[in-house]
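Moderator note: this is an archived Q&A kept for reference. The question asked for a predicted structure of one protein chain; the sequence and the answer are reproduced below.
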Amino acid sequence: MDAGGIATGRRRVKAALFLLCCGLGGSLPHGLGVWSPLPALALALALGGYGLKAVFLNPSQVPLDGAKPGEGEPFPADLPPVDLVVAARDEEAVIGRLVERLIQLDYPKALLRFWVVDDGSEDGTAAVLAEQQTLHPQLQVLRRPRNAGGGKSGALNTVLPQLAGRWLMVLDADADLQRDVLLRLVPFAEAGGWAAVQLRKAVVNADHNLVTRCQAMEMALDAVIQEGRLQAGGVVELRGNGQLLRREAVLGCDGFNEATVTDDLDLSFRLLLEGQPVGLLWNPPVQEEAVTSLAALWRQRQRWAEGGLQRFFDYWPRLWSGAVPAEKRLDLAVFFLLQYGLPVMASADLLASLVSRSAPAFWPLSLLAFGLSGGAILKGCRRPSEGPALPAMDLANLALGIFYLGHWFVVIPYTTLRMALLPKTLVWAKTLHVGASGESVLADPAP
């Protein structure tokens, strides 16, 4: 068995153990009779205290907006070289638009290099890139066979040895950036001593339908929680699109992991283990398309859930060994329980309630999770934000956002069950982008 097969086999065992522990945790309290909610209440108080402090009560200590350059000012003399990197598969509809946007960025042209890895595209992506190269000779295009393997991580590893800049910025093919983003982001990263900085993700098609509106609120929520975790000394996670990475830090982690379905989440943990700090920038954001259908959302969220669990299964022993500071271990434990443990335990609790004909016992913890999430949506959508306008925070939108987050209580248990019971062959699914029409769907996974 190859290394990838060994990794997936171990993950299957760990997923089964995780499922068993959460199943017992969700069902055993029903043996306490009228006292059955007490374990969940105690856990809610413990987790809620940290979550409330981190997300809402922790005073801001780190600037989270990039300083705007003065109008007409010359470029600073000490700017470092930057490589802009895109892994593209079947992105005919948007890749040309992205190249044009990157060319227009405000940054010394001698310090910028543009790279697109055509990852076995079968549409017109190659032709669009060839046309762009005639217009913009600084664009470098690498091509991989469609069956080269490794997904997005494999594509990024293909270009990594050829990069020479101090920083590399990873972008999706549908990304949209403000012209001054690098002039604000790079000095922020340099001054903060960060090994990586993640831009807030903003949904460009939030007004398309209810599904995209909910995703816009979810992205604001995610950035608020990441910001709170950072201020509390916790862990910030990369989100793929719009991540600025110090090249030497990535090389120190042996590049991108090709045995995971979410390269960004995996790299976040490997940077953490190497003691490399990750920062967050609220303004300016990276803009991207949200998926527009429930079917595409379901497929996308399964991949995110699987990748999120994979990194914990792969690195948890090292994370808990003392290589990571205590405050970051506490942060990881709290948010692992809230993000992954709670949905599985809540499902076991519901099943035990139906079997025993008793009331659910985990309502205090579920109430906590939805309360914290609703507060984060409210805080994020009311914050001054550049880029696309965030949904207005009236009662209807807030209620919609909180209700929408309930989908994770289905996605996480289903994905955990699938990982535990079914043999796994790694596949990397991607979101297809179609640009101006605002329609995006999730592509069939490619082996």
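Archived answer notes: The chain has one domain: 1-66+194-441.
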